[in-house]
Amino acid sequence: MTKDIDFMAHVDETTPPEIMLKMLLAAQRDKLKTNEEISYLKANRFGKSSEKGSKIKPDNQVFDEAKASPKDLLSDDVIVQDAGEKLEGSTIKIALKEATRLAGKKGRKPIPAQYFREDVIHDLKEEEKMCTCGMHMKNIGEDVAEQLDVIPAKIYVKRHKRQKYACKKCQENVKIAPIQTQTIAKCMAAPGLLAHVAIMKFDDHLPLYRQSEIWGRLGVDISRQTLSSWVLKMGSSLDVIAQHLQKHIIKSGYVKADETTAQVLKTPGKKNKSASYIWTYLTGNAKQPAVVYDYQQTRHGQFAKDFLSGFTGVLQTDGYSGYHCITKEKAVHAMGCWAHARRKFYDVAHLTKTEGVASKAVRIIGQLYGIEDEIKDLTSREKHAIRQENSKPILEAFHEYLREIKPYAQPKGMLDKAVAYTLNQWDSLIYYLRDGAVNIDNNAAERQIRPFAIGRKNWLFMGSPDGAKAGAVLYSLIETAKLNDVNPEG
User: Going by fewer Cβ within 10 Å, which terminus of the chain is more open, N or C?
Assistant: First the structure.
């Protein structure tokens, strides 16, 4: 309505018809763009967050890669499978998966064998062991059912008794046994307690004030300030390990990177409500995976360049321009994320809920993911060969299609932005065709952002830059342990 009023305010009887037409079209475009943005925000706020596609169609409607050309991917009468579904015999495979899933639901999973078993014997009374015929019944076995139980936290005090020695003759040269190196010197908390506090804060996402209340309920007075001090000192003490992880990531040759916002209080020169950033760096497909979180006050690409100093290989990101200062160097290859491109088209398709360019794009990208799902257990060389044979023709046809429809997309609309993003990132998006050792998307890095994002919802902000740095170090150690199937609490 505002746009209509503004339009009429600039029109009078002297305005040439061609100018009026241009102004009217511009006003309509602005109105459509505004309505689109409002609908997107509503869907984002109140709609479903899942990006699951529709159910697969019957056999006669499933896209048959062997019979169709890449051009057929883009035709209106072809139904392409959604992301993650198989290329050939998909209906049968999905049916088998469903049967397996349902079969797996029979009975609960067994309790892991590593846990201590306490036997509780249930027996009949002596008189109940008599048969109706008068004979005494024999025990022929037992029926065993297991329940999982828990013993509330057991608090104990570890006393360090350092033995002292002296010479009786000269009564000098007193010697005392050294104490084991502590994570925090002269700290009341033993390493086990420190690890427990860190895990509850950064893996269970439990704010320190709530931890303090829990300890109080157990009869131990540990203030939030004391817990905060321990976290800061742990971060400082364990930073050397995070630095070793950083070197390991740089040497890996394939790095995935992402970043997210963090509210950090008491930052010099910044308002408390302003955003700081946590950068995430993850090994690509290393046998010993590692992830490091790096706190910085801004999103300037120089921070990523400094962190990855000396890195050569493939850097996979969502296309954020801050990484260009790294990928412009000859020794670093930029690689894009097809999940990010797909999400932009999905947002349009989800908003319009009609068959169109966006929904086609989602299904075509899904076809690429279908190929990846088929080859996930193959060697890098085999993956490269299949990508060249199957994925490359699809991508070439898709690229041509996007270039053809680009002029017809509403300028600055969501579809226009999705097409522009994909075309602008094209070289980095298709890099995976060249290297069978890399992944089609950067989802692994985004998954590593998730623990921090969940924690952020619980503790809302970090109290200081030092606290943010300590948190980044502890997140790095905890999440790296989990990536290697190691219990971070020991």
Answer: N
- Say if strands 332-335 and 313-316 run parallel, antiparallel, or are unpaired: parallel
What number of other Cβ atoms are within 10 A of residue 154's Cβ?
A: 6
Q: How far apart are CA 307 and CA 300, in angstroms?
A: 12
Contact (Cβ atoms closer than 8 angstroms) between residue 406 and residue 419: yes
On whether the CB atoms of residues 310 and 326 are closer than 8 A, the answer is no
Cβ atoms 335, 461 nearer than 8 A: no
Are the beta carbons of 250 and 308 closer than 8 angstroms?
yes
Q: Token pair of 140, please?
A: 């022929």
Residue 155 and residue 220 in contact, taking contact as beta carbons nearer than 8 Å: yes
Return the closest-CA partner of residue 110 out of 148, 150, 149, 151. Answer: 148
Q: What is the largest CA-CA distance in the chain?
A: 118
Q: What is the mean pLDDT of residues 397-402?
A: 96
Q: Is the pLDDT of residue 274 over 90?
A: no
Q: Can you tell me the distance from the alpha carbon of 226 to that of 231, in angstroms, rounded to the nearest whole number?
A: 9
Q: List all residues 6 or more positions away from 35 whose beta carbon is below 8 Å from its beta carbon.
A: none
| pLDDT one-digit tens code per residue, 75-103 | 443 333 333 333 334 343 444 455 555 55
What SS3 state is found at 270?
A: coil
Long-range CB contacts (within 8 A, 24+) of 442-447? 442/256, 442/257, 442/258, 442/316, 442/317, 442/318, 442/336, 442/337, 442/339, 442/340, 443/337, 443/339, 444/256, 444/282, 444/284, 445/256, 445/257, 445/258, 445/280, 445/282, 445/316, 445/317, 446/258, 446/339
Distance between CA atoms of residues 273 and 454, nearest Å:
19
The answer to whether the beta carbons of residues 432 and 438 sit under 8 Å apart is yes
- All residues at 6 or more sequence positions from 263 whose CB lies less than 8 Å from its CB, including other chains: 272, 273, 275, 276, 456, 460, 461, 462
- Burial code (b: 16+ CB inside 10 Å, e: under 16) for 371-408 equals bbebbeeeeeeebbebbeebbeebbebbeebbeebeee
294-to-277, 279, 475, 483 alpha-carbon distances in Å: 8, 5, 10, 18
- Distance between CA atoms of 129 and 124, rounded to whole angstroms? 6
User: pLDDT by residue (tens digit) across 410-460?
Assistant: 888 889 999 999 999 999 999 999 999 999 999 999 999 999 999 988 877
